[in-house]
Amino acid sequence: MSEQLSQDHLIRLGKEFGTPLYVYHAEKIKEQYAKLTSAFKNSNTLFFYACKALTNINILKYVCSLGANVDCSSINEARLALHAGFPPERILYTSNGIGFDEIEEAVSLGIIINVDSLSNLEKFGQKYGHTYPVGIRLRPNIMAGGNLKISTGHDKSKFGIPVDQADKVLALVERYDLNIADLHIHTGSEIKDVDVFVKGIEILFDLIPKFSDLKFIDLGGGFKVPYKDGDSETDIQLLAQKVNEAFANHPNPGGRPLQVWFEPGKFLVSECGYFITKVNVIKETDAATFVSVDSGFNHLIRPMFYDAYHRIENISNPDGAPKRYSVVGNICETDTFAWDRTINEVREGDYLVFYNAGAYGFEMSSNFNSRYKPAEVLVKDGQAHLIRRRDVFQDLLRNQIDL
After folding, report:
1. Which of 88, 160, 228, 323 is deepest in the core (most CB within 10 A)?
2. Which CATH number belongs to the domain containing residue 134 in this structure?
3. Share of the chain above pLDDT 90, in %
4. Could you give the CA distance from residue 274 to residue 296 in angstroms, rounded to a whole number?
5. Within 92-191, where are the H helices?
6. Is there a catalytic annotation at residue 332?
7. At what angle do helices 195-205 and 236-249 cross, to 10 degrees?
8. Which of 217, 243, 266 is the last residue of a domain?
9. CA distance 377 to 212
10. Distance, CA of 364 to CA of 51 (rounded, Å)
11. Residue among 51, 64, 272, 332 flagged as catalytic
């Protein structure tokens, strides 16, 4: 049965902790992780939580307790993962256009490293040679994902070393006797078609025999989660079946069986998240009826940034007559959450909840307009825990220097 918090529960939390408020349901994360481990139980597969989706230290600790590993996109995320209790060997850091000093720090931390440029791969070889294993992020030149802004494997993407430069990679491997432990690809986010992952594997099969130290194949993440009613989720069972079949048909010639890695982020935490807001003002115009809530894209930027859809419900009046509204924010910028959306009758003071708010919600928030960042609450075993307090005025002055 799918884990979900009730509307009454969400209203109680909004009243107790104030709004706007991010709420995360721990058991939903556990349910999503179980889908992955159950589907791949008969294969040699590991899952690394792509923590860029949500890095609250309590979420990291909980994900660690489930047995998952963690995938980091910055050295600070790696530091947070260590702070949360992940051992270095369960932390993967995939670099992206960074200074080599970050890679040196990652080596000093003892974590797993993927390098995404020929330049840094050469520097790595010059300094470490064969002494420290390293992975290579390749760009497979595959277009996939729900939005161009979150598609990372196409031929105009900045990410990874293009597969057509494999000869240059191999030249560096030979020159510096590099210990290449894994090959990594990531094509994008919101990928529903599991054949996209299979296509990525097939691109790697030609390269795998050329790396004698290879232990892992990292297929990235990007699993789709449902945002709208009727949306489907990536079929994880089918993905497991097709990945297993692909590797069964293409064993590593002359080498050890390869472990497969995935990096789910949104898949693990999107549906665990609820964003609770309160209605400030209702404004009737000839063009639309605007519902202004006590938030804006400073707290949830996805609708404005990605044209992302979030289901919105009036949890204070669930039996009200459906009407058409445009839900907007309170900052000095166009911050439309939903245009001409059907919602049960809305009144000033009602609570509206945005679903699927666990991934890239608080994580991409800001203090634009000098507004406070919201609080975060984790509901675990039926108990609500404040895991980040709401900003106060002093937080706006923190780090500023008064001359």
Report:
1. 160
2. 3.20.20.10
3. 79
4. 15
5. 100-109, 118-128, 166-176
6. yes
7. 20
8. 266
9. 47
10. 12
11. 332
284 and 240 within one domain: no
Residue 391 has pLDDT above 60, yes or no: yes
Task: Look at residues 244, 266, 288 and tell me which one is the last residue of a structural domain.
Answer: 266
CA distance 261 to 190: 18
How confident is residue 153, by pLDDT bands cut at 50, 70 and 90?
Answer: very low
Contact at 8 Å (CB) between 247 and 288?
A: no
Condensed to tens digits (0 to 9), the pLDDT of residues 287-328 reads 999 999 999 999 999 999 999 999 999 999 999 999 999 999
Q: Identify whether residues 383 and 242 lie together within a single domain.
A: no
Residue 253: pLDDT band (50, 70, 90) is low
Q: Could you tell me whether strands 134-139 and 180-184 are parallel, antiparallel, or unpaired per DSSP bridges?
A: parallel
Q: Which helix (H) or strand (E) segment is 237 a member of? A: helix 236-249
Farthest-apart Cα atoms in the chain, separation? 72
The amino acid occupying position 118 is: L
Name the token pair of 347.
């009144």
DSSP string, 29-94: HHHHHHHHHHHTTTS-EEEEEEGGG---HHHHHHHHHHT-EEEESSHHHHHHHHHHT--GGGEEEE
Please check whether residues 310 and 241 belong to one and the same domain.
Answer: no
CATH of residue 368's domain is: 2.40.37.10
Query: How confident is the model over 119-144, as a mean pLDDT?
Result: 89
Share of the chain above pLDDT 70, in %: 94
pTM: 0.93
